[in-house]
Amino acid sequence: MPQHVPFSLPASLPRGVQHPPALPPQPRRIVFLAHRDLGNPAAGGSELLVDRLADGLTRLGHQVTLLCGGPASCRDYRVVSAGGAYGHYLRARSAFARQVGETDLLVEVCDGVPYLAPLWHRGPTLCLVNHVHTDIWRMRFGGGPLAPAARVGRRLEHWALTGAQARGLLVAVSPSTARALRALGVERDRIRVVHNGVAEPGPHTGRSPEPLFVAVGRLVEYKRIDLLLRLWERVRPVTGGRLLIVGDGPERGRLEELAGPAVRFTGRVGEAEKHRLLCAAWLLLHPSAVEGWGLVVTEAAARGTPAVAFDVPGLRDSVADGETGLLARGESSFAAAWCALALSEHRRELMGKAARDRAARYRWHRTVRQFRAVAAEAVRGWAS
């Protein structure tokens, strides 16, 4: 039985899912294969995680390359574009051979559409999974003429995670993602949980004197901002104040048409402005149908801002219900939790302090260290 590094996980971690092991010899050359670079206008939490891992591993002396679709940004690690936003899935293998070459470990970031790297890469691979897209395929393509595309996507993803990845390890970003992998049939002993981190938040810039509620994320179907806008019509007469929607995406035009009074869409904002808004907010609102972890929950928590979210995979890991925020089990429950916290400054302050204390346990340097341990284990497992 290998020795494990100290690693704090929730008690709800599926039985048999292992902690990252003690550090064996490290792979020197590491390649991440991912859909986007962080500089892509459509980038989100998955891209931020990969960037923090790549940057942290580079600082630890590894040679890191990110092979992705779309534009390639200038970073402290090498970024190589394999082609267009979707065409790069077909060109990933040839781009890897031409532009990357020899590597000690290939990390495939599995975010719905797979690269099937273990089928063509002759060397150690590691699969990084934010969340399984089972329900998201249905939400994105619906039950109309595009329903067959949802079925194909779902089956391809499931086969990739259980078949193509059958020899290697999989890194899940939360216990919820680990459970979803287990439900697909992935063996427990091949799953490692490595949580997202959060940057040191810096000085607090002050809470808004008037009720201010903030939702942050990419404006896509499964984030369910349309539901939040409907609930705002019920909540606003009780709480007053303003609702800010921070982020951009293909749903923005439709959502702006649905928005009622006291709603503002900011579009994408820089880190400094996001910090200011999360400090100013009374509550972070997160109506998403599913998440891997819900990185913005931890970012808000680091600023002492509690969250109201649905009791769904990922968010039930990043929100400690009744302690750092409230988890709702239906629309009426969400509206009630929103009103209850908005009307109780004392309760918000208590939850905000608990959220800040909990967020202090999640820092990127720890995430990088834990991921590095799993990377070394993956290489060692391939050689054995």
From TrEMBL:
Keywords: Glycosyltransferase, Hydrolase, Transferase. GO terms for molecular function: glycosyltransferase activity; hydrolase activity. It holds the Pfam family Glyco_trans_1_4. The keyword Metal-binding does not apply. InterPro entries: Glyco_trans_4-like_N, Glycosyltransferase_grp1. Residues 44-198 form the Glycosyltransferase subfamily 4-like N-terminal domain. CDD domains: GT4_PimA-like. It comes from the Bacteria. Residues 1-20 are annotated as: Disordered. One of its GO terms (biological process) is carbohydrate derivative biosynthetic process. Transmembrane segments: none annotated. PANTHER family: SULFOQUINOVOSYL TRANSFERASE SQD2. This is Glycosyl hydrolase.
